[in-house]
Amino acid sequence: MSLLGVLDRLSEVSKFDEQLEAARTAVSGLLRPQAFKDLLHGRWLGHPLHPVLAMVPVGTWASAGILDLLPPARPAATVLIGTGVAASLPAAMAGAADWSEQDKDVTRLGAVHAATNVAALGLYVGSMVARAKGRGGLGRALAYGGLGLVTGSAAIGGHMSYAQASGMNHAVPMARQMTTDWIDLGPLDDLPEGRPTLRTGEGQGTPIAVAAVRRGPRVDAFIGACSHVGGPLADGEVEDVRGRACLVCPWHGSAFDLENGQPRRGPAAVAQEKMEVRYEAGRAFARLPQRHEPK
Ligand code: FES
């Protein structure tokens, strides 16, 4: 087993699922209203916010670890540790918002990630208290302990993002598979008005789901897997969200603007892949813009 393979084993432990579900419900209830949750998801940024915010405590604490090696720079190390402690709160809130709307295996590992971070934070707070009391040696020992924990926790977070794909745009693998040929969505009259319909495009050996929505004479078509965690958008619905007609994912309620695929409501932070559409002899055809042309 690889070094981080043990994390995959951990993510299979279902013993605490009930407690995790209760925690997830509590987090969802606390992070209200939806606009606040969207702020934490990073919908306004077009990218998950948590990894951006997490850079601050990780960076300041790592820098403090270097400065603590140089006696004249130790007061600056204390300032950096305090900065990291203060910055850990918004980073944790953004992480909790993302965590509350993830798959079970990610949720399990996310709980380990969070617990490790809380332990690291405790050591850093202890380090600040020790330094304030003039016990610099203890303060530095606690800080190095915290740095070890936060490094491990960062590795867990990276594993969640890369190995468990928790932070990726789940529409992109499908878009990469798809050829740039036009896909026949069928006669306009066969597409129901105002609700998504599943159509299938040609992938490279794999059929690719497309979610098509007809509104009068026009059709909007998207890659069928939601950018958040791959929910089936063709099973969703069309809803007015903040004054715009949106395609709403059935899994966690992300709402994508039918005009441009931009998320109008999270948890999705990135836009949904939108396809070009043309019309010929009463039929609609869709294809991906050329940027995904296979090499
Ligand atoms: S999969 Fe989560 S909102 Fe679509």
TrEMBL record:
InterPro entries named in the record: DUF2231_TM, Rieske_2Fe-2S, Rieske_2Fe-2S_sf
SUPFAM superfamilies the record matches: ISP domain
Cofactor: [2Fe-2S] cluster
Keywords: 2Fe-2S, Iron, Iron-sulfur, Metal-binding
Domain Rieske: 183-286
Cross-referenced PROSITE patterns: RIESKE
GO molecular function: 2 iron, 2 sulfur cluster binding; metal ion binding; monooxygenase activity; oxidoreductase activity, acting on paired donors, with incorporation or reduction of molecular oxygen
Pfam families found in the cross-reference section: DUF2231, Rieske
PANTHER family according to UniProt: FERREDOXIN-RELATED, RIESKE DOMAIN-CONTAINING PROTEIN
UniProt family annotation: Belongs to the bacterial ring-hydroxylating dioxygenase ferredoxin component family.
Name by which UniProt lists this protein: Nitrite reductase/ring-hydroxylating ferredoxin subunit
